[in-house]
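Sync notes, pocket subgroup
Present: LS, DG
LS reminded everyone that the earlier model was apo-only. Rerun requested with zinc ion included. Inputs:
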Amino acid sequence: MGSATAEEREKLLRVVDGLRVWRRGGQRAPHKPLLVLLMLGRLRAGESRLVAFTHVEEGLRALLRHFGPPRRSHHPEMPFWHLRSEGIWELAGPVETLGREAGETPTVSAARRLTGGFGSDVWQLLRDDPPLVDEVARRLVAAHFAESLHSDILERVGLADAVYPTGDGSVCSAEGAGRLRRDPQFRVGVLRAYEYRCAVCRYDGRIDTVPVGLEAAHVRWHAAGGADDLGNGLALCSLHHKVFDLGVLGISPDGRVQVSQAFHGQRAAQRFVARFAGVPLLLPQSGLRGIAEDNRRWHEREVFRGPARAAVTAAAEASDDYEW
Ligand SMILES: [Zn+2]
């Protein structure tokens, strides 16, 4: 690889790392990362460099709805426009739209007349270096999303190959490993505090003496600056960890399980998720610190897909539908 290429590669990775900008107050801003991931998936699938906004609009909106923060509306036109300011993206379209100030986002109908894609140098660099595509993808998911969602996102954009499974659903890479700083004490500390039980369903399965399917979840994501301490930890079974990170489960100010009204499903979905609406979250054993309020609030604001369902009543609990 020539030194010019190595330099280009470093430049691209710096831009990618620079997308890791959290707005004030820890607000999630995954718009640009999700657009880049979507476009990397298109590149991998052999699609053309430039694409009409209308061709990716719905796909990007769906990614934002599923993996972005809970918001009333989502704006795929924002990253499609603003990615240009990062120097890796170009736009084509009517002069009256392109002539706007960089900071002035066009309306969605104006955006529908635009075409965009990676600049040709960036495109060529990525096309000639498949491992670089994987590296960029891994850096983006690591910097912007909870670990339990990494494989889901990569799979969804057609980059499942970028995953090196670590056995717990997260991804790692030689270069990314240092960035995913892990504190092994965190897992042990959290599981011990909750006495090796899921704080939602009390699941405590083990093979002989080894717990299985129990995980230490971060309330405020590691990627969002969440700390490795008890005030930010929760012992959850694998299912409840996944749906907690997806915003299906939340925590009310009085420490009860919240279930999103957006969640639905038949009997098993009711039995394993919906029925926990209103159930008190397990507290850590006495003397140990519970979840800090600012972390709970971050999850409520940036992850939980409110509004919450009404608490399951005692009557429903007693009926056949809710029996174990
Ligand atoms: Zn559970």
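DG: Residues 198, 200-201, 203, 236-237, 239-240 surround zinc ion (CB under 6 Å).
LS: Residues 3-18 form the longest helix (16 residues).
Action: DG to write up.
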